[in-house]
Amino acid sequence: MTTLHANGLELAYDSFGNPHDPAILLIAGLGSQMIRWSEPFCRALAVEGFRVIRFDNRDSGGSTHFGQHGTPDLGALMAGQRPQVPYSLHDMAGDALGLLDALAIDRAHVVGRSMGGMIAQLLACEHPERVLSLTSIMSSTGNPALPQAAPEVMAMLMRPAPDPATDEAAFLAHSLAFARRIAGSGQPFDEAAHRELVLEERRRARGSGGTPRQIAAIAVTGDLRSRLVAVRAPTLVIHGADDPLILPACGQDSAASIPGAEFLLIEGMGHDLPPAHYPAISTALVRNARRA
User: Fold this and answer.
1) 108-113: strand order across its sheet
2) How does DSSP assign 251-263, residue by residue?
3) pLDDT tens sequence across 94-105
């Protein structure tokens, strides 16, 4: 992992493949770190002739944290109010753009998952000259009319996690219960692998409490549909048929809002990216990139 200064922040990143190959920029999801894009997944893309770059969003992992801003009033946000928040998804898209600038990359294939898919969509519509292709995975447009996750799933997402510094066992139980709930039915839930991932994210983190601030960033950014008509890059939208957090209709809305977008529904996939789905996703992603 390396850190560099971009968009006024320190961003942690690493890369795979030949630095002279076309770049694929991977943008992580809500409350997660770049290591959710696993090394085997990144290397599978690199052997196809790409430089693969993953990074920690602001307020996660080894990048700058915003703990000094405290926890936003999520109840007010859910009630439709707009309390002051430290940043929006537009700022996070600026981080991705700043990272490309710092690495002297003029144009990249941009791939985002969950919240990262919304950030990728913003990059593609607001900076079309920088985006060669767009792949949005298990994400949404922010359209308020779309169906929402079941109340018990949202309750698990919004429930504050126990402090790992004082009760690591409770923190792990909380994290694993949510991961199990949003996993797909296509393969058994790998509790050992998820436990290892959660512990590695804990070791890498420079701060905590970023997830509520990122939820607030999504909320204040709002509906992207009116902007998405400006996307000109070849676009692929991938969604899991079993996704209980961001329902498949949300991915379909993204595809319908972006001119010429393709939609790929993967049976047995939830709101996660287990190794069993790497071949289908990487193959589709590479095919879309080569359309550019």
Assistant:
1) 2-6, 9-16, 51-55, 23-27, 108-113, 131-137, 235-240, 262-266
2) HHHHHHHSTT-EE
3) 999 999 999 999
Q: Residue 227 corresponds to which tokens in the numbers above?
A: 């902007």
Partners of 113 in the β-ladder: 137
pLDDT at 163: 87
How far apart CA 134 and CA 49 sit, in angstroms, is 17
- Residue 35 contacts residue 204 (beta carbons within 8 Å): yes
Pick the CATH number of 2-290 from 3.30.2290.10, 3.80.10.10, 3.40.50.1820, 3.40.50.920: 3.40.50.1820
Q: Helix, strand, coil % (nearest 5) of the chain?
A: 45, 15, 40
Block residue for tokens 């939609």: 263
Mean pLDDT of 88-94: 97
- Choice among 78-82, 129-133, 214-218, 251-255 with the minimum mean pLDDT: 78-82
Residue ranges of the domains in the chain?
A: 2-290
Q: Which two tokens stand for residue 167?
A: 């009760």
Which residue in the block uniquely carries the two structure tokens 């996690």?
Answer: 161
Q: Give the closest residue to 256 by CA, choosing from 123, 108, 146.
A: 146
Would you place residue 207 in the very low, low, confident or very high pLDDT band (cuts 50, 70, 90)? confident
Collect all residues with Cβ–Cβ distance below 8 Å to 159 and sequence separation of at least 6.
174
Residue 292: half-sphere exposure toward Cβ, Cα within 13 Å: 25
- Which backbone phi and psi does 50 adopt, to 5 degrees? -130, 150
